Hints:
29% of the residues lie in helices and 28% in strands. It has helices at 55-58, 112-117, 119-122, 126-147, 187-197, 233-254, 256-261, 266-270, 281-290, 303-311, 365-374, 383-390, 403-411, and strands spanning 3-4, 16-28, 32-38, 43-49, 69-78, 86-97, 152-153, 159-160, 172-175, 178-182, 199-207, 220-229, 278-280, 317-323, 333-334, 337-347, 354-360, 396-402. The strands form 3 sheets. Strands 7, 11, 12, 13, 14, 15, 16, 17 and 18 form a 9-stranded mixed sheet that branches. It has a 5-stranded mixed β-barrel with strand order 2-3-4-6-5. It has a 3-stranded antiparallel sheet with strand order 8-10-9, with no helix packed on it. A hairpin with a 4-residue loop joins β3 and β4. α4 (126-147) crosses α6 (233-254) and α4 crosses α13 (403-411). The longest helix has 22 residues, at 126-147. The protein binds 4-amino-1,4-dioxobutan-2-aminium adenosine-5'-monophosphate and magnesium ion (MG).
Amino acid sequence: MKTVTINQLHEHDGKEVQLKGWVYNTRNIGKIWFLIFRDGTGLLQGVVVKGEATDDTFEMEPDLNQEDSVVLTGIVRKEPRSVGGYELGIKEIDVVNHVTEEFPISPKEHGTDFLMSNRHLWLRSKRQNAIMRVRHQIVKAIRDFFDNNGFILIDSPIFTGNAVEGTTTLFEVDYFERSAYLTQSGQLYQEAGAAAFGKTYCFGPAFRAEKSKTRRHLTEFWMVEPEMAYVDLDENMTWAENLVGSIFQHVLENCQSELKTLERDISKLEAVVPPFPRITYDEAVKILKDKGSNFEYGSDFGSPDETLLSEQFDKPIMIHRWPAGIKAFYMKRDEHNDKVALGVDMIAAEGYGEIIGGGQREDDIDILKKRILHQDLPMEPFKWYLDLRKYGSVPHSGFGLGLERTVAWICGTKHIRETIPFPRTMTRLEP
Ligand code: 4AD
Ligand code: MG
């Protein structure tokens, strides 16, 4: 007999099939009972009728518990009123494993902390299943975008000898009688990649010892980082908006049922079509002031500022040309104004905050050396990085897109801890 999954049932209408999965719930109305069943691809209602099912199966209902592992045999029937549009006329249920203790996550409401402590089980629920499926499709969209546009995947290392994004968020680890750091960003290695291949990207975890407990920060998160030789800030922004546009398009084409489960307002997602507004830092500050904010010129935007700014537009916005003092050492300065760094941040729509940080890189070896000294960074670990300016230095740019913030924005989840299978925060290392 053919073993199929719930999301394939439409191909087997009227046929006898086998399904492997778990009990979600049962409902008994006397001569007939219903089994709500899940297999990881969806939910299915099974119908057990006396005479159609074996006697053993018909008598089984009182003994079944949530999360019992079961194999079902039955006939697929079209049933528009049922979840997924099909139901199964069950002939036989084979119990593979019986749950003897009550499953901690019942269909009733639970607090987030309780659910997070049971994350390994919570992943089985419908909403979490939908978020992880959307995440999977976003990852695919990102890979497809770069692979189809001539980028080469160059994996950056996780253990590194130097800081990229400031020294305050470094995780230090013992490394054979010396110190190493978990990477904050793969960017510096992509700069080596871009000089070797033209266009490269890395896609992996990044680590930040964030002491803040905001809904946008994890200590371990995933970032995709493209880097391109002979590309300036403007072209960099075009790559960034096209990447985001293609992610949204892919999700809209492939995740309709997940977005429905998540009750996401699709029209908001459909609006995310490039080009996106590009405004300078100065213009952004003016918008904030006009809205009555007491924002201090020269500082970084906080979450409330970002929300205020994104309310002004129905698309994400790209803020470029920042005060150099609040940006990283590697950023190139504006040729017309040395106080301005050629950085860009993309701020998501609907208040989901900064999802991309990037910019044009300093390509002059002497200026770069001065910056490293000026920021009190040790020169030794940057020797290899400076070589990239010694041999064949060119204008080049890149950016990093945070995966979890993108998933949160697309799925409409308030806190990014629901957008990664096993979140790591200051207070959470388990499960
Ligand atoms: O703006 P960031 O710090 O930029 C960089 O790391 C650059 N070196 C990237 C590059 O140019 N190649 O981080 C980029 C993005 C942020 O916009 C945000 O989406 C995400 O990474 N991010 C975080 N996401 C979750 N938790 C955190 N603690 C994050 N820190 C940054
Ligand atoms: Mg940033």
